[in-house]
Amino acid sequence: MSSRQILTADEIRRALIRIGHEIVEKHGGADGLALVGIERRGVPLAERVAEAIAATTGVRLPVGSLDITFYRDDLTRTGDAPEMKGQNLPFDLAATTVVIVDDVLYTGRTVRAAMDALVDVGRPAAVRLAVLVDRGHRELPIRADHVGKNVPTARDEIVHVRLRETDGTDEVLIERREAALPAGTPGGGPAR
Questions:
Q1: Which of 11, 52, 90, 99 is deepest in the core (most CB within 10 A)?
Q2: Are 93 and 119 in contact (CB under 8 A)?
Q3: Which CATH number applies to 10-155: 3.40.50.2020, 1.20.140.10, 3.30.420.240, 3.20.20.70?
Q4: Residue 111: its pLDDT value, please?
């Protein structure tokens, strides 16, 4: 596979600061807001956005986490047996505008699962979506309210978000899967 970097550590930092400003501006302040990161990389992103908002407003937003594993409609295709992490929502949903935070928006199925999981816990005043990367190819009518970077991709490309909290480094890469070579060609499979 060949890959290229589409966001550096500094570009990720700036994108999250901008997202924080947009969230507060759209809401008209920080009161009544909470961030909820989708496990796994959405959680540290939500924490970083909360830090950016606190740096400019002096208000530390509550940050929760949401495990959407058993809400996915593609659970049988996702691989190994899932590990449940649970929900951590340390605030009253009914009085709160919740901003769901995730790393990549693709088909929209992860966000749909997150909204289902959230509504099973309670009914927020409103729900918004913030993502670091929007790569397109929606299968559901879902769009992000706040986007760090729009990246047009092909379906055979993979977007890898790496964060220091989970991967030891901050970067976003896009990888293109190599097309399979025909059998019998150099580097291809065996001739049959």
A1: 99
A2: no
A3: 3.40.50.2020
A4: 96
